[in-house]
Automatic annotation (TrEMBL), chain A:
Belongs to the HupC/HyaC/HydC family. It comes from the Bacteria. This is Cytochrome b/b6 domain-containing protein. InterPro entries: Cyt_b561_bac/Ni-Hgenase, Di-haem_cyt_TM, Hydrogenase_cytochrome, Ni-dep_Hydgase_cyt-B. It is found in: Cell membrane.
UniProtKB/TrEMBL annotation, chain B:
It comes from the Bacteria. Residues 87-223 form the Oxidoreductase molybdopterin-binding domain. SUPFAM superfamilies: Oxidoreductase molybdopterin-binding domain (SSF56524). This is Molybdopterin-binding protein.
Amino acid sequence: MTAMNMMPDSADPIVKRHRLSTRLWHWLNALLLYILFTSGLGIFNAHPRLYWGAYGANFDPAWLELDRFGSWWTLPATYNLALSRHWHLTAAPIFAFALLAYMLWSLANRHVSRDLAFHRDELAPRHVWQDIKDHARLRFPTGTAALRYNVLQKASYIGVIFVALPLVILTGLTMSPGMNAALPWLADLFGGRQSARSIHFIAAFALVAFFLVHILMVLLAGPVNEVRSMITGRYKVPEERP
Amino acid sequence: MILARRALLLGATAALTGCDRLARNETVRNALFSAENFHKWAQRSLMARDALAQEFRPDQISPVFRANGTANPNTPEYKAIWRTGFADWRLRVDGKVARPLSLSLSQLRTLPHREQITRHDCVEGWSAIGKWRGVPLRTILDAAGLRQDARYIVFHCADDMGGGRSYYESIDLIDAFHPQTILAFALNDRPLSVANGAPLRLRVERQLGYKQAKYLMRIEAVDSIANIGHGKGGFWEDYAGYDWYAGI
């Protein structure tokens, strides 16, 4: 409430939007996903072919064959499989345990049930369609409605936190021969090691797609206000549309 | 939008250059290189000591088992033993053992052996499934009698990697005594080809491909790997910075 007192003349009140846990996790992820994606492409460059099934090498049919990603994309910039792996395998466990902690914490502090879970009326086809139309017209919610996540936002946050990120972690573990002996069901779950490698790659690019839309939405919704709310937690509620 | 995109790309490039510079810092480098210890600890804590790598059905075998690394050692010594069909080849077992051994291929073939259809996972990302037949390393080590202070088993190979440096690899006793760790002399029911490591190669199934040393000449039991090669426990570990523990 002190925030409101700081700007007594403003018509737009400032509210506390993001919890500390959300803000910390957000920026840790920004760093780690950046390292994981660029070092991951460095690893991919060692064998830029993808297969389905348990095995797959040069004589087997690949469903995707790419040129090596250029130095703009990879960590390190020049091809160095060992160093790409060191970056990737250092960042990966931190990323995985942070996700686990955030999931448990968000369930415990009711962030998930209060802010992310769908309400029944939100899932009505008409409501979902309205939301899609609003997004397409870039008609962002104003006033108190801007403080709640709409149905597309909820779907993408739940999809990322509870589907895409766990998927990328589990398929990553499936590629490890040691984990394969420890948890052999993982390879069966994903249809074999090479399928897991393909899914890992697809999930990584799905996360990049999320990132691009996410950045676009932040830019369109007011980058200063949005970025500030993710750093300090304080968010200026947009004026009610007349 | 184009400006934003350019700024984003410039930012990304700057960050990558920053990361590359960071990786040259001694502390950062040490941190990056020590993640291996965490993974080794985590995996070994998670799995039973003798947890088996997945084994497959005959119909799951790769049509072609890709050979990688040295395709033929081509040294005068190797050519000489190859010409006689490896009749003159002997596997030496020495170091910290009570009874050093010298074993011929036919002696190895008469020992009890194990057959396993397993997946070979290269550090590069590809996999090939093949059927291996060989003598459990445990059998050889028990026959030689490991001394109390033996901690690692080092595999010396026939391939010269340039400048007189021979390929070598090492594993600790947990993997050395694992039931699937074998000295393989056959792949897919045929004697090992030169490209795949004839006459004998190591299979250590819970680790990546570069640990599967080919063209074995000598097995040495040691108390420390610090004095072998450059002290990192293997050729690629010494010269390329690969992890010694290749379970991930």
